[in-house]
Amino acid sequence: TITGELKRHLRDLGWMVRPPRSVQELHRRSGVVAEELSQELGRHPSDREIALRLGVDAAEVADARSASHPLSLDETVGTGDGGVRLGETLGGDDENLAAIDRRHGLATALAELEDGQRELLRMRFVEEMTQQQIADALGTTQMQVSRLQRRILAQLADRLGAPSRQHQPRSPRARVATVTPVRQAQRLRSA
Fold it and tell me: Mind listing the UniProt keywords for this protein, alphabetically (predicted)?
């Protein structure tokens, strides 16, 4: 029927936060009973009186009636000076938990490296030795240490699922080439 469709529409779409259907129905019925009791008693009835008429618990009536009025996250909860904004009581991302995951992944990736690779990283990042100092200790050149370090860090980045610097696109400025006209290039070659 049209009336049923209107009621269903208001029930399903008329709430900011949609509680369960049973709560919505109890809210609607408690409103009707509250009006009836107001007429009979000549005053606004209590939740307990409404609950007695409906045959439910007073706490259920209070919950159903408050469900239609959601609290703002900016509303202060608590009493006195101890009150805080409701939004401040909600949980958030725990950065320490994410750090544990990253450290575990790094430890696993480091364990997969060869001993010499781990030793190079230890010298570079734990002992904070320069590439030249590492090269002197290993009996090689600074350039070889630099290349090896870059290769090891790229391996770690691949294992951790992070993009390495080596695979990141260069800035647009670096891709621009200067084109020399053919005649000018021929003159430069012959000079």
Answer: DNA-binding, Sigma factor, Transcription, Transcription regulation
Domains of the chain with bracketed CATH? 2-71 (1.10.10.10), 110-166 (1.10.10)
Q: Does residue 23 register a pLDDT over 60?
A: yes
- How far, in Å, CA of 51 to CA of 34, rounded? 10
Q: How confident is the model at residue 82 (pLDDT cuts 50, 70, 90)?
A: confident
pTM for the whole structure: 0.40
Q: How far apart are CA 107 and CA 7, in angstroms?
A: 60
Residue 91: strand, helix, or coil: coil
- The 8 Å CB, 24+ separation contacts for 149-154 are 149/120, 149/121, 149/124, 152/113, 152/117, 152/120, 152/121
Q: What is the crossing angle of helices 131-138 and 142-160, to 10°?
A: 110
| Distant-in-sequence, close-in-space partners of 128: CB < 8 Å, separation ≥ 6 | none
